[in-house]
Amino acid sequence: MKAMIFAAGLGTRLKPLTDTMPKALVPVGGKPLLEILIRKLVASGFTEIVINVHHFADQIISFVEEHDAFGADIRFSDESGKLLETGGGIKKAIPLLLESGVAERPFLVHNVDILSNVDLQDFYRHGAGAAALLLVSERQTQRYLLFDEENRLVGWTNVKTGEVKSPYKGLDVEACRKYAFAGVHLFSPRLFPYFDAWPDKFSVIDFYLSVCDREPIYAYPSPGLKILDVGKQDALEKAEDFLTGECCQSR
C-alpha cells in the first residue's frame, strides 16, 4: 500500500523550534514526528511512501537516508522552489505516486503533525469504492465539512460567518452532518484527471468541494477516535502523554 506524508509546511506555529529544523523533525518523546508516523505507516502495511519537502528539505532527506528509510521505499516530492499547499502537493507528486503500482489503487495522505489512534488498515479498507475517504471528528470548531445522511460530502461552512461552499444550490446546512477534518484521508487516482483544471497551488479541501457532486467522497467518523494536532507549542507538552496512552485529547 502507498502513502503520502505532508511534511513541506513552514511550521510557523512551532517557532522558535522551526527556525532551525523542519516541523517534521520536531521531537516528541525523543523521536521526530516524521519517524513516529513512518513507523506507524510501515507497521500498518504502507511500505511505499512519498514525502513532500520544502522547509529545511535537506534535513528531512538526510534523516530518512540515515535511517535506511525505516525499511520502506521512500521517495521525495521536492517543493523547495514553491509551497504548493495540499492539493498542489498531491498534484506534483502524481508521477511518484503512480510508480511501481496499480494506478487505480487509492493511497493514504497523512499530515506529519497529526497523532491519532486510528487503525490505518481498517481506514484503508473502508475506502473501497470511494473517490476519497476523509477521517473526521466531532471536535468543536468554526469551520465544518458538511455531509448528507449517508456521510457523503456535500459542502463546507463557517458557522461564525455563515459562509457556505457547496456545488449544491440551496443546500440546507442545518440538515447536514457537521464534522471537522482530521488531516488524514484516502485518495483515489481516479480523481487525478480533475486536477487538469487546477493551478499548481491549491487546497485539497477546495478541490474535494468542487467534485463532490460528481465523485463519492465520504466521511469516516471513527468511533473512539483520539487525535492530536501537534502543530502548536502547547500541544507538544501533551504529545508525549498522548503517545503513551496516559492522556488523549479529542480533536
Automatic annotation (TrEMBL):
Record keywords: Nucleotidyltransferase, Transferase
Domain Nucleotidyl transferase: 2-141
Keyword Nucleotidyltransferase part of the UniProt annotation: yes
Pfam families linked to this entry: NTP_transferase
Protein's UniProt keywords contain Transferase: yes
Alphabetized GO MF terms: nucleotidyltransferase activity
Source domain of life: Bacteria
Entry protein name: Nucleotidyl transferase
UniProt source species: Paraprevotella clara YIT 11840
